[in-house]
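Please go through this protein, sequence plus C-alpha cells, and consider how the sequence yields the C-alpha cells. Keep your notes short.
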Amino acid sequence: MTDPSAAPTPPTAAEETGRRSDSYGFYAVVAGLAVIGVIYVASLYLYSRVTPDNPADIANNVVASMGAISGVIGSIVSAYFGVQAGKSQTQP
C-alpha cells in the first residue's frame, strides 16, 4: 500500500509525449478539413471563370479535382490515425 502523505510523482517524459501526440490527431483532422474546404471554394471559383458557359462542365471539373484532392488528404489523415492506433496497442 502506498503512503497517502507522499507527494504524487510527476509524469514521465514518455507519458508527456504520449499526451502531446494524442492531441495532434485533432489538429490533423481540422487542418485536413480546412484544406479541403479552401480548395473546394478555390476550384469552384477557378472553374466558373474557365468554363462559364456550361454549368455541367463546371460540376464535372470540380468533382474531378475534389476527388483527387480529398483522396490524398483522407489517406494521409487515415494513415496518421492508423499509426496512432497501432502504437497504442503496443504500449502496456
User: Anything to note?
Assistant: The longest helix spans residues 13-50. The chain has one domain: 25-90. The mean pLDDT is 76. Helices lie at 13-50, 55-90.
